Amino acid sequence: MNPTYLKDKHFYKTMLGIALPIALQNLISSSLNMVDTVMIGRLGETEIAAVGLANQVFFLFILLTFGVNSGCAIFIAQFWGKKDIFNIRRVLGLALISGGMISLSFAAGAFFVPSFILSIFTKDKTVIELGAQYLRIVSFSYFITAISFAYGFASRSIGKAKLPMMVSAVSLLSNTVLNYLLIFGKMGFPAMGLRGAALATLIARSIELFLMLKMIYKDGEVLAGKIKEMLNLDLGFMAKVFQTALPVILNEGFWSLGMVMYSIAYARISTEAIASIQISNTVQNVFMVVAMGLGNSCAVMLGNEIGAGHRKKAISYAATFSILGPVLGAAMGFVLILASPFILSLFKVSPTVYENAHRILILMGLFMAARIFNTILIVGILRSGGDTKFSLFLEMGSVWLLGVPLAFVGAILWKLPVYWVYALISLEELLKASIGLPRVISKKWVRNVVEHM
């Protein structure tokens, strides 16, 4: 596996054309989410914990939706390599139907039984009550999110990453402004607290979907399919797509359930532990935008080349991304460690939460090179090549055989502080990388899934 594209200008031009808009979109998203967390933090640590746990429902929903769209994106990227617009629209239709069904089931649970769901995580009645108020309102945004998510993923898969970036930027800015107005009751708006944050999210998601559909269908581009075109599905076609996509959906589902189990373990430590993790994850997400940009650009570039029949070029691309990821990850981790005291000074929290979050951020910085490599490995290389079953077993095994047991042993049996529990959990990143790298080198991951469709 020879990384011949390390000095290739065309490679970097293509990569940056896809990676920068995605990274910028995620940077805007993560930065504004951090601002939102700071605003909610002004209400108190209990409110931070309530929103953090309530968003575990959205987290599980969005990752299942991510799995559906990641699986479908494998086909869209490879069909785009063949310039097969007819089948691109069919796959998009399948993604919309699947995402819509998932969103409605999650919305029903979040609206009708929010207290029961939150009681799985914590016994703190105040956290449950506040989180339930938030969940009921924000549940109406799930279906809207699923539709815009499908179009955004499809846009990136055909190399048009600027559209979802611009739409997301407007939506997120709207969310931040509305949060300020509705949480604190500024400029004549009522002070609604957490309910205001939930309403702001619902309005912002609606704006996002409206702009996305308007821009796609206004220009009549590749994704501007008619309902009849997108529903032109038969059992053979759907079976072929889901044969490859189902392991991705299961991958995201079991991985996100693992992350939920981590949250349950943290909640067993204390409400302060939940707040510390919520703050740390919000900060880390700002630094992980590099991983999302590289991972998605890797998936699109490799998928396009495999679909076009350029196997050797795809393999060399994979080698180049495998080198770039850890190098940039190490640099980002170093910056995170240095900047963490300044960033945490923005949050109005107790000394205990501050100290816990500071130590967690240092650990996040140390593990960032491995984390970014694993993002490129799973999202970019293995999935683009259709090697989704190996990806499923790799991620499931790392999280459920190592991470989850260590989380509960550390939190409940050993009664460790939250930062040491996080350190134990992070060992799964090292296991994943050590098993995944030989798979990349073996070249067994390269498969043309659209060759006979």
UniProtKB/TrEMBL annotation:
Q: Which Pfam families match?
A: MatE (PF01554)
Give UniProt keywords alphabetically. Cell membrane, Membrane, Transmembrane, Transmembrane helix, Transport
What CDD domains does its record include? MATE_like_8 (cd13134)
The protein's predominant localisation is membrane
Top-rank lineage group of the source organism: Bacteria
Naming one, the record's GO cellular component terms include: plasma membrane
Q: Which stretches are transmembrane?
A: 57-80, 92-121, 133-154, 166-185, 237-265, 285-303, 315-340, 360-380, 392-413
Membrane topology of this protein: Multi-pass membrane protein
Subcellular compartments: Cell membrane
Q: Entry's InterPro entries?
A: MATE_fam, MdtK-like, YsiQ
Molecular function (GO) terms for this protein are: antiporter activity; xenobiotic transmembrane transporter activity
The answer, when asked if Transport is one of the entry's keywords, is yes
Specify the protein name: Multidrug resistance protein MdtK
Upper lineage is:
Bacteria, Bacillati, Bacillota, Clostridia, Peptostreptococcales
